[in-house]
Write a structure and sequence with these properties.
7 strands; 4-stranded antiparallel sheet; 3-stranded antiparallel sheet; mainly beta; 1 helix; about 80 residues
């Protein structure tokens, strides 16, 4: 099965951020007082197609801030191997 590198992008404000994954959580650095920034998280997913890889990423990986769960602003495939 092919592997796809999928990246999720999210505009964020300061605060504590974590990406929750099927394997656990991935801590994102605290942006402190920088104001709005762009958080990105990428992972490799084995899937039958690019569309399936994106669907898996969206359904099993999501960011959470101090305010609660968020959704990615954009999800893209960066590399196909």
């Amino acid at each position: 099965m092919p592997s796809f590198t999928v990246q999720g992008l999210l505009k964020v404000s300061s605060g504590h951020w974590v990406i929750w994954t099927a394997e656990g959580s991935y801590a994102i650095r605290d942006f402190g007082q920088v104001g709005e920034a762009m958080l990105n998280y990428s992972t490799t997913i084995e899937a039958g197609s690019g569309a399936e890889a994106i669907a898996t990423f969206v359904s099993t990986y999501y960011p959470m801030s101090d305010e609660g769960p968020e959704v990615f602003d954009e999800v893209v495939i960066r590399d196909v191997t």
